[in-house]
């Protein structure tokens, strides 16, 4: 049996880098990014530790499909999604 999941976008302090990921445990995964648990990964290298967008789904397969779709988007579409959900670009980590 599969459980729900989330697709999320992290950025750095200057908002110059966007990282899209998917997980079944958003809080735990973002915590790993913030703590740089994997120091050689993309998010650690580019200091992406600010959660600016997330969307939850009842099935992990839906979250995976959305992640694949979003990774094909151009930057303008990604910025539009972030601005729609989080116009001030605050770190949403405290809200999850």
Oligomer: single chain
CATH architecture: 3-Layer(aba) Sandwich
CATH class: Alpha Beta
Helical stretch count? 4
Residues in helix, %: 25-40%
CATH topology: GIY-YIG endonuclease
Q: Radius of gyration, rounded?
A: 13 Å
Helix/strand-derived class? alpha+beta
Give the number of domains: 1
Low-confidence stretches: none
Instruction: Identify the strand order in the major beta sheet.
Output: 2-1-3
Termini separation (Å)?
24 Å
The portion of residues forming beta strands comes to 15-25%
Q: Give the CA-based shape.
A: globular
How much is the average pLDDT? Answer: 96
Q: What order do the helices and strands follow?
A: EEHHEHH
Describe the structure.
This protein is an alpha+beta fold and 96 residues long. It has a single domain, classed as GIY-YIG endonuclease. It is 39% helix and 22% strand. The protein is built from four helices and three strands. The chain has helices spanning 26-35, 42-45, 60-71, 75-85, and strands at 5-11, 18-23, 50-57. It has a three-stranded antiparallel sheet, sandwiched between helices. The longest helix has 12 residues, at 60-71.
What would a concise description of this structure say?
With 96 residues, the protein is an alpha+beta fold. It has one domain (5-95): GIY-YIG endonuclease, CATH 3.40.1440.
Structural descriptors:
three-stranded antiparallel sheet; 39% helix; single chain; 96 residues
What is this structure's SSE topology?
Layout: E1 5-11, E2 18-23, H1 26-35, H2 42-45, E3 50-57, H3 60-71, H4 75-85
Antiparallel strand pairs: 1-2, 1-3
């Amino acid at each position: 049996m599969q459980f729900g999941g989330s697709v999320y976008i992290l950025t750095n302090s200057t908002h110059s880098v966007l990282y899209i990921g998917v997980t079944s445990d958003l809080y735990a995964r973002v915590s790993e990014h913030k703590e740089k648990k994997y120091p050689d990964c993309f998010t650690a290298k580019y200091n992406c530790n600010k959660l600016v967008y997330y969307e939850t789904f009842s099935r992990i397969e839906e979250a995976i499909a959305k992640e694949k779709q979003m990774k094909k988007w151009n930057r303008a579409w990604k910025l539009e999604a972030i601005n729609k959900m989080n116009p001030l670009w605050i770190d949403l980590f405290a809200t999850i």
